[in-house]
Amino acid sequence: MMSEPFPQPLLKPGWGLAVLASCAVGVLGLLTPFDFEASRWLWEHANPEFGEWTRRTLFEGDAPGLSDPGICFLLTSLGLYLWSARRSAPEWLQRERPYLSFIVLSALAGALGLVHGLKWVIGRARPHEVWLSDWPFTPWHSFGPHFVTEGVYFGSFPSGHTASVVTLIMLAYVLHSHPGLHRRRMWTWLWGAVGVTMAVTMAVGRVMTASHWLTDCLGMILPIWTVLHWMFHRFLRTSEQREYVRMHGSYPSVSAYWELRLAGWGFLILLGLMGLVIGLRSVWLEAGFELLVLTPLGIALIGFAWPRFRRLHEAVLSAFFVVQTNDPA
User: Cys staple from 111: which of 32, 97, 163, 281, with CB 3.0 to 4.6 Å?
Assistant: First the structure.
């Protein structure tokens, strides 16, 4: 049986990651000087219906909104992933598990972990709080006025709505690298363009509602994309996982739902990092000194979870790839 040619990466793992990261920093740098004025201008010249369309979602009992395709995509992928890990799952679905693992873990790392971790740590005030309630304006790279001692709050930086739409770009990676679709690369670029357009549209709409600053939305499209790219090519090596399944005809013998276990350890590491930074933040801002106790707790949590996270990650990848070891002889 003649094997299909192995698809080339959409962006080369090395320079592609560097290009995305550099562009992400560059876009944030370009937007920062105009963040306040441009956000205010968009709010004052907003189309209320357009802004409402980007805000609402079926999952909160409203009419359909722009974020719904991304949410439906993630929920469908999660359902297929949970099914694919079962022994009773059809073979075609088990073969696609590497892609489903990538989507689920990347969504947890980017759209949830990165976004909500930064929201709690940065504590940036939203535009409507600044313009209508006299909260102070702070740039995206500075600590804002909100503290976790206020209770549950949703900081402005970054935009979760925008992140949920950016995750649609993951499907372009799947389409491009899938061994059965290498002759239909045009769909990859078309879907990638659709995903980026939807993300930019969402970003503008969220600024129009005075819910976010430009840097929260437009400025975070490329950073989140960078996380997705890194997850696909470096952390999970998804194309190579899929090639293993194609060559061997089955998924390797690894623990069921290892992705969720890895996400669990990653969540503890994230909590540790948040505790560490929030504690140091109280010293930096000279306020909320009781939060300083979170710093040693965060360090302890990272020390507990990181070795377990790393061991599980290495064990899973070693099941897919030959690990070279030194011969003691």
Answer: 163
